[in-house]
Amino acid sequence: MSNPIKDWYFKYMIAKCHKRYDEELRRFSDPYGMWIQANEDPSQTARGAHQDPRRFRVFVLEDFIKIMREPEEINEGWLAVKINPGWISEPSDKWSDFFSEDGPRTPTALIFGDEDTQDIESKRRSGAWFKPDDSPETLLSFFYYGSLVLLRGSLVKESLSTYAPCYDKKELETLKNADPVKADRLILYDFILHYTEEAYAKGYKVRRIPEVLFHADGVGVFLEDPEGDEYVNPDAYWGYEPEYNACKIAAIRRRGMGAYIRGIPRGNKIYCVPVYELPEDKPEISVIIPSKDHPELVIKRLDELRNRMNYDNMEIIVVDNGSNDENRQILCEAQAEYRFIYMYEEAEFNFAAMCNKGAEKSKGEFLLFLNDDVEITQPDFITTLVGQAMAPGIGAVGAKLLYPDRRIQHVGVTEMAVGPAHKLVGAPDDDKDYYYGKNVLNHNVIAVTAACLMVNAEVFFGAGGFYEELKISYNDVDFCFMLHESGYRNVVRNDAVAIHHESISRGDDRKDTLKWKRLLRESAILKERHPHTIDNDPFYNPNLAGYKPRYLCSYEYPYEQRFNTLLPEALEDDIKSEWYNNCLTITLEHCGLQRKLSEDEEDIYLIEGWAYVLGMDSSRYERSLILTFNDEEILTVPIYTRNRPEVVDILPDESHVGLTGFVVRIKRNDLKRGEYRVGLLYKDQCSRQRLYKECEKVLYVD
User: Fold this and answer.
1) Mutual angle of helices 169-178 and 180-201, in 10-degree steps
2) What mean pLDDT is predicted for residues 665-680?
3) 47-90 pLDDT tens trace
4) Rounded alpha-carbon distances, angstroms, from residue 358 to 195, 345, 362, 367, 568
5) What is the largest distance, in Å, between two alpha-carbon atoms of the chain?
6) What pLDDT was estimated at residue 506?
7) Could you tell me which residues are beta bridge partners of residue 407?
8) What is the DSSP secondary-structure string of 226-283?
9) Dihedral pair phi/psi, residue 232, rounded to 5°
10) Is the pLDDT of residue 99 over 90?
11) Which domains does the chain have, with CATH numbers?
């Protein structure tokens, strides 16, 4: 006979478990929502929050264009131009000096901020666009300021007095009839390019306020998917289309160079980027190829450079640090056919020194450092890179590098919490456009890889070349940091594409423990040399993830925090024999030291995987990790839950298995030396049942 009170209590507890499960699942599905809670003042960002009229006067784009024709109506304050429907959050008071003419900072001409989308019905915000700081070359690719720009009224008035539109009235009228939105945006884009040029010339700055200032009106909620594509607001992402070509060409001509437009087909779109025209007397390029014992690769590169490029004024220098006699002879015999300088000297592998030796031998106005495993088939590849390198203020220029299977290897180097890294590495390139053109359009970046790096020779030697104490890794990053700190702008040209057969030349450092330790040592040197640039990449928004290859929000759940360790405690009760149960199914994915990202990191043991109870509702159980030391001491450690949506797909017949992931981090100093058996203890919240199971793997603490 059933007990009504017991039945009621069971149903109550099950409902409570399900409610907690659903709430936790919602939190895991919305990292940006969690970021908002952790980072924003609700009173500052609520819709309808007071906008101080002393700060700015708001115009929709159509009204701003009208006032451009009547500059006498422009006052001395700030003008906020809304390109899309939405609302503005008042910037925090700590950025007040951005708006001041006589504050401690260099005065500001243009301010923009980050933005997101708010669902009109639910008022829920999602789809954040975290932008880079001032990026002049990115602005020539598309209007990356987005949906809102703040302009200094006095400078707007001055700039309008010298502004000459890139279009004539007839062309504009034709565009207006076809697409009035694009016509208005063309006027703004053209003026902003002129306005920023005038501002730079007068010593003003373009600044991003590191807050979400604009909230576009939208329909729906766009949750972040770590396995899917990053959300892009199509209304905010514009300026790369053919309709805006004229203003880009006009801007480059004002800067003393010529350009033409290259259209990049991708999906059903054409992405248009300017390519700099070269003078009739093309500058000489010195191509420097470091290599050892790979004559077949070198000869392929020589053939591509001599026979497939539309650039003749180049010298090629092969720097060999000790090929065997047979391979050396092959290259010596190839000199007559491919006309290259062969520098041979037996020495330990030092990539930086090899590049520097080649540069010292060169006589070209521009240097192209090229790995022997980088395959070039695009005829105008060198033309594209050298044209960009000739533009005023440019430092290093890199290319998009793909693996042979067309996955992304390099679209610029980013300085993140994890250190210098390749964003989007391993992602398929095909027809995708990741996070506002990161793999399609040209962008300013903090660094590019020396696997393919173009630079003006005078700039190279002025920066001191590659730092030879960084023999293998990070010498290119160090060099680019030097350029950035000297005021040069580094650029990745995603329209110049090469195939990188990475690791053919030297192997993959990430898969070798000794090489990884050497990487950490060289990373420490980089940090010592550039303390102000480390963790301070102006072209990578700090609100983006510091440890992930995709452009995801920086919010970290407890299980993601690398130094969020837990303290083991003695288990009060012994593990009872009746608790052992094979229905508790465990997949242990890692059980050992967490890989360090810097030499000074503390040793931390990482235990992670996923587990569920076969045929039962997994939301019912509280979980803890059990470590048994020498069959004597039993320790219990709390668990951080991890969302594992793929488990739901793997186990469609099991109940509530989306939160079956577990992660535990323990400091090395909190464990005795020795061997620990690893198990999980499950406590049913709806009964007195306990389940326990040990894994086959053990934890070794030395």
Assistant:
1) 130
2) 96
3) 555 454 457 899 999 999 999 988 888 888 899 999 999 999 98
4) 42, 12, 6, 10, 56
5) 99
6) 46
7) 428
8) TTSPPP--TTT--S-SGGGHHHHHHHHHHTT--EEEEEEEETTEEEEEEEEPPPSSPP
9) -130, 130
10) no
11) 41-274 (no CATH), 285-529 (3.90.550.10), 558-701 (2.60.40)
- Taking the C-alpha atoms of residue 38 and residue 633, their distance in angstroms, rounded to an integer, is 39
Q: Tell me the backbone φ, ψ of residue 333, rounded to 5 degrees.
A: -70, -25
Contact indicator for 353, 304 with CB cutoff of 8 Å: no
**CA atoms 386, 390, 391, 392: torsion sign:** positive
Give the residue with greater pLDDT, 547 vs 384.
384
Q: Which residues pair with 642 in a beta bridge?
A: 661
CA gap 117, 124 in Å, rounded: 8
Residue 664 or residue 5, greater confidence = 664
Residue 194 has pLDDT above 80, yes or no: yes
The three-class DSSP label of residue 518 is helix
SS3 213: strand
Task: Determine the angle formed by the axes of helices 4-29 and 31-39, rounding to 10 degrees.
Answer: 80
Rounded to two decimals, the pTM is 0.93
Dist CA 190 CA 187 (whole Å): 5
The answer to whether residues 433 and 349 touch, using CB atoms and an 8 Å cutoff, is no
Helix segments in 276-407, DSSP class H? 295-307, 325-338, 351-361, 381-390
Average pLDDT, the chain: 92
Q: Residue 6: its pLDDT value, please?
A: 80
CA separation (Å) from 700 to 405, 597, 684? 39, 21, 30
- Lowest mean pLDDT: which of 97-106, 171-180, 201-210, 621-630? 97-106
Residue 130 corresponds to which tokens in the numbers above?
């975290």
The set of residues, in sequence order, having a beta carbon less than 8 Å from that of 140 and lying 6+ positions away, is 193, 248, 251, 252, 273, 274, 442
Rounded Cα distance, 341 and 418, in Å: 39
pLDDT tens by residue, 326-364: 999 999 999 999 999 999 999 999 999 999 999 999 999
* The pLDDT of residue 51: 52
If you average pLDDT over residues 119-126, what whole number do you get?
94
Q: Which amino acid is at 339?
A: R
Specify burial of residue 417 (Cβ count, 10 A radius: 0-12, 13-18, 19+).
middle
Q: How confident is the model at residue 392 (pLDDT cuts 50, 70, 90)?
A: very high
Q: Higher-confidence residue: 80 or 2?
A: 80
Question: SS3 sequence, 409-460?
Answer: EECCEEEECCEEEECCCCCECCCCCCCCCCCCCCEEECECCCCEEEEEHHHH
Whether the CA torsion 176, 181, 187, 190 is positive or negative: it is negative
